[in-house]
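User: Batch of two.

Assistant: Item 1 of 2:
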Amino acid sequence: MELLIGAGMAGIAFTIPTSHFFQSTLAFFWLMAFYSATHDIAADGFYMLALTPHEQTLYVGIRSTFYRIATIAGQGLLIMLAGTLEVFTRKIAFSWSITFYALAGFFIALTLYHVVYLPHPNKDKTERTASAGQLLHDFLMTFYSFFKKPQAWIAITFMLFYRLPEALLVKMANLFLIDQPSMGGLGLSTQEVGFVQGTVGVFGLTIGGIIGGIAASKGGLKKWLWPMVWSITIPDLVYVYLSYTTTHSFLVINLLVFIEQFGYGFGFTAYMLYMIYYSRGSHQTAHYAICTAFMALSMMLPGMIAGWLQETVGYFNFFLIVMACCLVTVAVASLLDIDPEFGKKQTVHIEMKPRMLIADAGSSKTSWCLLSCDGKEEKYMVTKGINPAIQSTDTIAETIEQELIPEIYKELESTSELQIHFYGAGCIPDVIPQIESVLKDIHPHTEVQVNSDLMGAARALCGKEEGIACILGTGSNSGLYDGKQIIKHTPSLGYILGDEGSGATLGKSLVNQILKGLMPDSIKEDFFNTYNLSESEFIQKVYKEPGGNRFLASFTPFLYKHRENSHIHELLINNFADFFSKNIETYDRKDLPVHFVGSIAWYFQKELQEAAQLRRLHIGKIIQAPINDIANYHINEYEHILK
């Protein structure tokens, strides 16, 4: 239909300059009215098929706003465009022809856009084929069921007369603004009328419509019916005032039109929402189409006499009659019987279920996994690093509040109880109570367990088997695990005193050898070209700025790039061998596999294996990040408890 409407616009544009323009354009307008009505039915049906009932209520204000914007655009913006072209071309017919050609192009472009981007609702399909007789029967039954609904004639009366004042007003408002003061109008130019109605009016209408839709979705149609009735009627007084004073103040005119359009946008929501309310049940789409037919009729019939009435009584008396018609709006609204719950956001029963929140926290980042206890639902997030050894409790709480909770708040609404298993760097016994306190604020029913990142690595790598668990990331750590607990641990001591084999220590060794001239010239040249830092800047970032360990670890990609270089290779092997000799060999358990988590272990597996062979150690698992394996560990634990 949009394509046919575009073709009709092009036909009007083509025939305007001809000598028989009146008959030709009238024919094209008739065809366009048919196409438009058919398109309107299809658009209404699409709206009701594609959206849920609550979404229909929520967006009804916006929908009615755009309906009104289209009316104003046709009566304001297009007139403004044609008037502007008329000023430049001095040719009235040519100006309107160009305007309609532009509209034709717009509708053709709109057709192409909708073909590509409109969604395809599952309900939008042909349910069955039928004979011509069956189609006729269904057609007649649609009308029969429409008129047999409860309060059918009250509903029809409401649809026909609720907008009676607006039906009269909208036909004469633009003429009143543009008519000469001697005729009782305000004498605005075509461009000024276009600005008043097409810009200021549209803005007020948009705001009113949006607020109306939101209000109706919150409190329901019955609660907001009368505020909307007063909103669509009382602001019509502005035209009584304008016609009485015939003010020349452009500012005052714009302000009053804004008020009237805002009121209309808010009040029209009740009308659109009631049509949805009345159309509920079988044949919903067809019944809504019938409602829109009454809506069109409600504007057409009063509009047919609006011009004659104004010429008979003048603008001021005409607007007084409009205000008198507001009593009709009040009367028909008082007849309605509306379900108080209609339009409200329904409280849907949500199955409450226990969930687990797993965290693998480091200085650089924290990986989170929210999952159902059976493991069937998973959601992964990444936030800033959390390390209580170098961060305050307030900083940690801020990270959780600003980055984690916004990602999971919807899931938390259906969570009966939350089990949090937090594994993190710096989680020593002295700081665990503070971390637990922060985490318990995530959900009212929360059970929290805080353990070191090493325990997380051990559970991810070994499960319930005995082994040696190691972390090689920004820092390094290791522990002897008996299948339940870490029974022996060599302290890592941080990147200044220890952290052998870590990204920070590898970076420290690289910078040391670069600045002391122990690396080949080609390596040094590429290093300074890559990072463009002076010796003093290195000193500043390592010793005087926070995050020296992360700064040094940032050079590991350079090491990975040049790992085949003999000097870099030697640096890597020596650092990893140092890690083994000062950490792993202290456990005196060469019979156990040595498992690793962390990016350094993951990317430098070859060099790690080589260093292990030199120390006669056996490498087991190497995983980049433990979050999935930790989650699986706790899922298995939960299933074991249920059994």
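Item 2 of 2:
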Amino acid sequence: MGYPDIGAKHFVINFTRDNGTSGSKQIDAFAADPETCIVVECKSREERGKRSLRQDILETVALQKYIRSSVYKHYSTKPKIVWIYVTTRIIWSDADLTRANDAGIYVITDNELTYFETFIKHMGAAGRYQILGELLSGQKISSSPPGKIPAIRGKLGGYTFYSFVTTPRNLLRIAFVNHQALNHPDGAPAYQRMISAPRIRAIGQFIKDGGFFPTNLLANFNETPKFELLSNKDNTDANIKFGWLTLPNKYRSAWIIDGQHRLYGYSGLEDKHLDQSVSVIAFAGMPKAKEADLFISINHKQKSVPPGLLVSLLADLKLGDADGKTALSALASATVRTLNLDKTSPLFQRFRQTDVPPTDAQNLTISEVVKGINRSQLLGKVAFKAVAPGPFSGETDAETVERARRILNGYFDAIRTANASRWDAGSIAYICVNPAIRAHLMLIPEIMSYVAHKRGLDFMLMPPDDVVRQLVAVISPALEFIEKASDDDVKQRFSRKFGEGGVKDYLFELSKLISRDSPDFGSDEFKRAMEQRASDAIADANKDILSISELLTDVVIGTLKAVHGTHTLDSGDPAYWELGIAKAAMKEKAHARQQSEPLERRKRKEAYLDLIDMKEIVEQSNNWPHFQVMLSFASPGEKKGGKHTQWIARFNDIRKIAAHKNSLRTYTDADLEFLDWLRSEVQPSLIAATKAV
């Protein structure tokens, strides 16, 4: 940011207390010039979560006047001191935020820090006034104002405007660009895209080469500036007045609506360029919503406005719209923005911001979650051209957003608490991703309908905390799965395609988990889908059991023939039968079955062995060395060591269900999951082995 005085590592400020004793305080980051002084305290956690900062804030408050006194002694100009707490991976409590605000401490979390770093990376020292505009909004600038400049005052579209010529130096010090990436509530709606460094460099070079811009910069003064009229004889036009304009001498007092790249193109150039003339039209007191509307009107044909930005702007431009669908979309947009800016929310800073490189955790998109809220009808629905309230609705739009914030924070905090590392991991963990958030938004009204039917509760009248308790109680099986399941199990269950199909798949998987404790839970569509899936799964299971049974028998008998031979021994039986099967009872049972068959259907004796016999044959000491590579598979959950043939016994138990299945004896989910494992792990080896023998 171009400060001449920067605190070194382990920088310390010495001070004298009121009682005359001396003290010192290490400052994590310090920067100063005669105009402003930045004092930064840094706090962090290894993993994202809550942390009390009460004692830290109280210590800062206790030392503020002593540090201020020391700074003023060093800088006779008495610079404005900006107190900042920079925190990473910390979820702030409401109480700590209030303490910091009361003490004049500006809180910068991961999201704001990313914005500031990105902006300074683009702008370098020239971005100082944008940053100071955020930190010192509305405060007077210490340096002297530029003085009066000639201007014209008039009206456009019902708004007062001033047309004047000034210098980039004068305008940069009071300018502020309302970037969507920062999305500060005071600037709602935030509509500008992040400044493009290549464009800034290109414009800077254009100016250095003698170029200039004959078009106006468009701005908006926060307050009506001082304007002294010329004498009446020179101001005869009723619509246009000539006079002397005094530019505001406050940080963040001139909001740039159009021309941010042209203005900041002068930043970083030599003084001779900063004192060139730029033409400006500045409105006075134009509402931020009108600024955004004007910005879109000017720019939509030049460069498309990103969909995410347009959806975000709905929160301010279309609240209370006469069209019910548009009004509900605006409410959904306002809810998502509130969650993203709420430092106490598990969804804080989880949404991508336009033109700012996302962190690993910023994998959610505003437009997707707004779509999810709209489809859930939690905020209301359009019925007979009117908006009917939903379970999140309040008396006003503001109350609706606040009720939605509290319920969604409580609900998703239960998920985050179940497994914070998975929640924070973003897309690689499948828990806090767009399809998941949208699936939960669809699940919430289903839970409400279920609980209302079972217990006669009215969620419309229920306080937010009670709503959260009811919701969390129902999703407890899903929370347990998120907490305890292996990464592979989570991936297997929740790793699905994106889009609408992915949302429905995710919703059905959540419903399946819940239905284990509440068998009657789920929408009619879910129940129909599960019945169809069960029917399809049973058909697939029967087919797989027959295939794996035949393959296993072929591999075992084929290997016995290859190892022991097919020649006839003195007993009259082939060698593979006599030597490969040691247990007499097994052979006798097979022989008896063979003899009981009609002669025309009678097969070789090995065809009458039981499937479970294959396990004993494989484990036989003279056979095992030949089967070890092809048939040794550790079943899911099986301990290390041993021959790992237990899967044959488990498979035999499931095969019995296929042979004797009835309404009281069917496949369990565990059986079907085991068959999935056999299909993926064992069946390919059996197929390869049959070809080998």
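The CA atoms of residues 580 and 623 lie 7 Å apart.
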